[in-house]
Amino acid sequence: MEQTKKRSFSAIQPSGTITLGNYMGAIRNWVKLQDEFECIFAIADLHTITVRQEPAKLRAHSLELLAMLLATGIDPEKSLLFCQSHVHQHAELAWVLNCYTQMGELSRMTQFKDKSAKHANNINAGLFTYPTLMAADILLYKADIVPVGEDQKQHLELSRDIANRFNNTYSDTFTVPEPYIVKAGGRVMSLQTPTAKMSKSDPNENGFIALTDPEDVIIRKFKRAVTDSEAVVEYREGKDGINNLLTIYSVVTGKSIEDAVKEFEGKGYGDLKLTVGQAVAAHLKPIQEKYEYFMKNKDYVAEVYTKSADIASKIAQSTLRKVYKKVGFLQK
Ligand code: TRP
Predict the structure, then answer these.
(1) Active-site residue, 296 included
(2) Residue 47 in contact with residue 133, Cβ under 8 Å?
(3) Based on the domain organization, do 111 and 219 belong to the same domain?
(4) Any idea what the CATH number is for the domain that residue 223 is in?
(5) Residue 73: which domain range?
(6) CA 135 / ligand 1 centre spacing (Å)
(7) How many of the other CB atoms lie within 10 Å of CB of 203?
(8) C-alpha of 256 from chain center
(9) 155 Cα to the center of ligand 1, angstroms
(10) How many other CB atoms sit within 10 Å of the CB of residue 16?
């Protein structure tokens, strides 16, 4: 009999432009995980409203993100792909977990501190309890692994603490999830400030590549990429701009960094930037074509997320039922 695969859960926020950073750091790896794990992917729309959103935009961004995930290779035959808000158990378990999480623990979260500073006029309770909702996302599905970037490691650690605490208070209920940290190419830097992570909120649009950027825009942004004054293509400490270009090149071509460095031996930065830009554009082209297709076939996208949510809801309900019983709620 086929051995049952371990389960992976991950989610991504529909907060706007999807960048090459999101793709290289997360999405691309999700696609690969599908062979090894039983994957559950969610659009974390409940998390997104911890920062004020324009309703029409949030709706559009959620659909675009679903279409883009399908375009990059998330396969609904293998994986579940749905919106967090469509599976009501997420919010319900989050409430219970709030009662098993200390204010002190939540106050220590660096993302809470950062976001509070950034959105000083809207430090809402949701922003504070954001990690307990994330714990609920993961624990509902008894996920064995959670692919996360560096910035979410602390939240995952808290999810593990909450799971252990609940299991120790009652009896084994939750699977304690392991982080699955992405190695090579996990961190894409801004093309304009290569010491900072590539971000869609970069005030300089040349700092990031949107997955929907057309070829000429991609090439132009790479041509303007900030490098250094040494004029030698090498991968080493201190050469942040060049390291970033080589990393991106290595990921989109599948070549090793060493091979990439050899390829540019004796060549200038102009050559490097153009070649990387062209390689990125070529890599994104089939993804962009599929994206256009899914955006034109919204009914299909809706069918995928509706079916997935129905299946997810059944798994989630079985966990929630156990939790409700353990904490002592009367069964109906
Ligand atoms: N907070 C994550 C982020 O912004 C998204 C997320 C929500 C998530 N729920 C999750 C990631 C559960 C992993 C597991 O990147």
Answers:
(1) no
(2) yes
(3) no
(4) 1.10.240.10
(5) 7-186+298-327
(6) 9
(7) 7
(8) 24
(9) 9
(10) 17
This prediction's pTM:
0.95
Closest residue CA from atom 3 of ligand 1? 12
Handedness of CA 113, 63, 87, 24 (dihedral sign): negative
CA of 13 to the centre of ligand 1 (A): 7
> Within this chain, do residues 310 and 280 fall inside the same structural domain, yes or no?
no
Q: Which residues contact 67 (CB under 8 A, 6 or more apart)?
A: 291, 294, 295, 301
Domain count across the chain: 2
Task: Say which amino acid occupies 283.
Answer: H
Q: What is the pLDDT tens value at each position of the chain, 332 positions in all?
A: 455 899 999 999 999 999 999 999 899 999 999 999 999 999 999 999 999 999 999 999 999 999 999 999 999 999 999 999 999 999 999 999 999 999 999 999 999 999 999 999 999 999 999 999 999 999 999 999 999 988 899 999 999 999 999 999 999 999 999 999 876 667 899 999 999 999 998 889 999 999 999 999 999 999 999 999 999 999 999 999 999 999 999 999 999 999 999 999 999 999 999 999 999 999 999 999 999 999 999 999 999 999 999 999 999 999 999 999 999 999 98
Closest residue to atom 9 of ligand 1, CA basis: 134
**Encoded tokens for 272:** 């490097």
Domain check: are 170 and 58 in the same one?
yes
User: Residue 299 is encoded by which pair of tokens?
Assistant: 């009914």
Task: Name the catalytic one among 197, 221, 239, 273.
Answer: 197
Whether residue 1 is contained in a domain is answered as: no
